[in-house]
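User: My instructor asked us to take a sequence, write out its structure as tokens, and then describe one feature of it. I'm not sure where to start. Here is the sequence I was given:
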Amino acid sequence: MSAKRVLILGSTGSIGESTLQVIDNLPGRLEVAALAAHSQWAKLLEQVQRYHPQSVALSDLEAARRLRSELDKRPLERACRVFSGPEGLVDLVRQTEGNVVLAAISGAAGLPANLAALETGKDLALANKESLVLSGAILTRAARDHGRRILPVDSEHSAIFQSLLSGKRSEVESVILTASGGPFRRSSLEEIRRATKQDALRHPTWVMGEKITIDSATLMNKALEIIEACWLFDLPPERIRVVVHPQSIIHSLVEFHDGSLICQLGPPDMRIPIQYALTFPDRMPLPVKRLRLEDLSSLTFEAPDPVRFPAVRLAYEVLRLGGTAPAVFNASNEVAVASFLKDEISFVDILECVERTLKEHTSLLPAKPSPSLEELFAADAWARERALAHIAC
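Assistant: Let's start with the prediction itself. The structure tokens for your sequence are:
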């Protein structure tokens, strides 16, 4: 069997680095075809020297220029193609031979490349949930039209994907997404109002990038996952529930109509869902810490608090509205989180900005059931502009 060629979009981030560890673990089974990042050219250079990809991409033009200059000094790496700029990711995906694209670029910026992956006959291992939130109908239709698969990398959706194999889709009653609850699970509303950036970045169980860590603290990550689950598993919103599970051992569950609950358990290690997405339908050995049930003192569950964490409620409202509302929801959150990380707004301002932008969109723009990609990007741009205006007030 020839090695599966993997294109990693976001190779310098936490998911990208975990993916490279998975590939290291399976020589001859997986190999690096391409690597892409935003601006970390020095880190990407190290990866090129180790993995010798066919091509790389950097969306930052100056970073791409510096990388090209460094590669030209090295005879072994001189043949590596360097794509750059806003279209560089799409060009890399379209012009690199491969079997699967591991999409780990945060935010809506990854959508065009993810769509290109499916259109060029590559499977999509998706860690970029924002793409499905922004354009679930378009991505899932592209997968069907080109006979490709969208394989979830998020631990929760991977757990659902695996649990669904226990029965027929017609037998599913509901799916239950688990949430850690983040660093403020036990905090009062007043304590949350005083939360600092350092407080919000202190996740209790997972080590992740800054944006997703803040999303986990607001529970926006879970809100986006609700929308993602609707598209991935073709389920109506009322059949998707969220439960807070602080230990992050049960990654999600599927409830069947005979009353059975099927779940996937495992240590909080992203290499597990990454490897499963890249080797599906096979399971390969993976040297991770084993989960010892006898060492678990308890597994606890509770409902998310809609007052302290309104993001989950907003997700269901967004799904009810449909059209371009998910694009506005996601874009305004990206802007608000970026502002929070720059110490421009408070923690609670994040969701206030999102809700304000969403309400403005709902009052100004009529819902359109099947917006085009151009209309979705227009809504994304509008939401970013309005969110910035709200922050500046």
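For the description part of your assignment, you could build on this observation: The mean pLDDT is 94. Try explaining in your own words what that tells you about the chain.
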